[in-house]
Hints:
The protein is of the alpha+beta class. The protein folds into two domains: 4-92, no CATH class; 103-184. It is 50% helix and 24% strand. Helix 3 runs antiparallel to helix 4 (140-176). The chain is elongated, with a radius of gyration of 21 Å. The mean pLDDT is 81.
Amino acid sequence: MKQEKTMLSLISILPLLECWEMTRLAKKAQQGWVLKEFKSFMQYKLVRQEPQVLSYLTAYQEQPNDAFLTAFTQNGWTKIARYKDTYIFSADKGEKTVCVDVSYRIRKYQLLRLDVLKTTIMAIIPIVFAYFWLNRVTSDLWTMIATLFMVLTFVPFLISLAQLIGYTLKIAQLQKGVICKDKTC
């Protein structure tokens, strides 16, 4: 039987899925697949162990200091994985949530939202180009090509638009003090 496997990380794509992702990792731990580390930007590495009842929590800190890590360890949380400024901690189910300064998390999402906004704007340009091209062509072949081009450029636009909405909603949640639906600071 395999002792390791990888799992897609969705929090790097859509921040609104952060709480769902931590619940998903907790369910995997109950099945005997415990988070070991970030394998890459979008993947977790899970290892086979005895089934455990764990909670997972994400935290963001650009330059972690002892106070940041101590806040978690004193409350029963263990640092499991880190990718750049994203940390995942685990603890036995029922440990209290550690509330840290969310200003960095808000700033991080604002910067990501700005990057996605630029991508969204850049994705609109080929759609507009294809639309005007579609209105100018007379040949059926060129009409098909222009339509296909428009459809293919519309998919990245929709993905970046979904990310833009996700970051905006996550920032609004954090500004209200809501980390997850059931966890507040």
